[in-house]
Amino acid sequence: MKIEDDDLVTFYPDSGATIFTLEMIRLYSVHLQRLPQLSLTWHQRLGHRGASVFNFLVQNKVIDCRSLENQNQCNVCHIGKQAKLPFSISDSVISEPFQLIHSDLWQSSTPSASGFKWYIVFIDAYSRYSWVYFLKSKSETSIKFHQFHQMIKNVYNASIKYFQADEGGEFIGLIPYLQSHGIIHRFSCPETPQQNGLAERKHRHINDMAHCLLFQAQLPSHYWAEAVQYAVYIMNRLPSAPVKNGIPYFLLHKQTPHYSSLKVFGSLCYPSLIKKSDVKFGPRSVPCVLIEPPGIIPLSSTSSSDPSLLSTSVSVTSQPVNPVLPSNNAHLMVTRIKAVISKPKILPSLLATTCEAIQITPTSYTEASKSSVWVHAMSEEYDALVHNHTWDLVPPNRTHNIIGCKWIYRIKYNSDGSISRYKARLVAHENRQQEGVDCVETFSPVVKPATLRIVLTLAVTSDWDIHQLDVKNAFLNGFIYETVYMKQPA
What we know:
Blueprint: E1 2-3, E2 8-11, E3 20-23, H1 38-45, H2 51-59, H3 75-81, E4 100-107, E5 118-124, E6 130-135, H4 141-155, E7 162-165, H5 169-172, H6 175-180, E8 184-187, H7 197-217, H8 224-235, H9 248-253, E9 268-271, E10 288-290, E11 296-298, E12 316-319, H10 336-340, H11 365-368, H12 372-387, E13 402-403, E14 405-413, E15 419-428, H13 449-461, E16 485-486
Parallel strand pairs: 4-7, 7-8, 13-16
Antiparallel strand pairs: 1-2, 2-3, 4-5, 5-6, 9-10, 9-12, 10-11, 14-15
Protein name: Transmembrane signal receptor
GO molecular function, one term: nucleic acid binding
Pfam families: gag_pre-integrs, rve, RVT_2
């Protein structure tokens, strides 16, 4: 067959046959485009749900298409649903100490008593023994690592082979030093703490124990560095699950640690003082708190001795501290008065036991009516309300917002702790009032301490006479401009 240029087709049959020439229709090229699969279209209609939900609808004949076999062909799912792959457990084998050292930094929001804000921890992957160094800024990281590396070489006569840390700037600066000493630095990928999980987990162990030690000793938070150091000291001497309950101290030093030297963190102790004076009958010791082995600090509330007189000594007698008063610094509500005036510090004897009479304040009218002193207090309050024409009796109306009332009881004390007065107040339920209808402000105006100090300053500078007086039921002399409907007290 031959196709001519003028769209004529000529057939050449076998020899001896007739040749036929046929006129054909003009030929055109056809381009086919593959239509998207119907299952992928339904996948897009259903908001890119997973294959399990999609195939469930197909099996129940809710939609008419084939099952979605490969969801990876949808580019939108890759862009909108991409997640981190799970991390498998590391199968690397550590056969000797200092083969791999993990390290990481931790920052405290409160500076320590020595001005530290950071600590860096170094962990031996073989024994899980930890070392902690404290820093005042992150720029000291290289200095602390140099100290740690020199200590490893001098004390253990060993060298570090691998160093695992993140890509923080403080560790990037260590690269020249690591390369010069033949230490291979393993970087963690950004935002991937799993690759340095040993150090991340160690932070939690250390901080959990340090928190418990501070709460146990009832020390302020700026002693967190001492608590962290004590926690690391204890953890190095306790069995560790990752090394099959082996003791890090034993795995590194090949010696069993002595637990008899451990003391309770925050225990009361009496160290010997360094004799710096000729006073023969001066104190030979002061009460102190044991906060780290073997460091000690003087108790500011029980001793006024110069801390420089103390020395690190084995002559220390210690005993647990039994706090007299439990510390509770939680305040449910902070008022303007509490924000500027603090309570005086209570300085009882360390081993004293205090007890005082407890006056129970009633919480309901039923309880108060059983006591004559509270009945008299309620009578005084009611007489004052009537005398000041606080209310007018009117018939109730359903259209009015009628609120309830209750009695509030309080005991007023003198400066010496004796009872001055039993006070009872009849108050309305302000939670039932509607702002803008029957109330605008629901509190009594109180003079700010700053205003009071200004007035006293003016009086002193102008040589004025100051007179103080107390007005009973002073709030009843005020005026309210809204009409409030309240039920009568029961």
